[in-house]
Here is the input.
Amino acid sequence: MRISFIFLVIIFLTNFVGMYNQWYLIYPWFDQVLHFSGGFFMAILLSTYLKDHLLDSSKLKNTLIILGVVSFMGITWEFAEYIANVIISPIVYNLFAVKTYFMGDLSDTINDLLMDILGAGLFSFILILRRFTPQDKFQ
Here is the structure.
């Protein structure tokens, strides 16, 4: 749980470095990598946190819970980007004369949510595969 939290903090900080260096404009894939990684490591954090509540017999239910929570968190993040774009961007521009952006258009938002879900889906797939496969194959 600690490692996934550390990776999420690194992803969060990389977001600011990317905005400062305009990596979102220079590298079109940069945003996708962050959202995919964020979904993946958020799924790890959730599965570790909820391990006592997830049932071994219900793989589909566990996957849907993890995907649902990661999707909700991705939607919440997109709302935060919108609010930051509306509130923080004008303040930063007025104080520092620096034009900032926190969100793209609708296709960017949909792509961000898709990457969040695909990242969580990959972790869920790995988790299911690992539980269905005899453990001696992974040693």
Notes: The first helix runs from residue 2 to 20. The chain has one domain: 2-131.
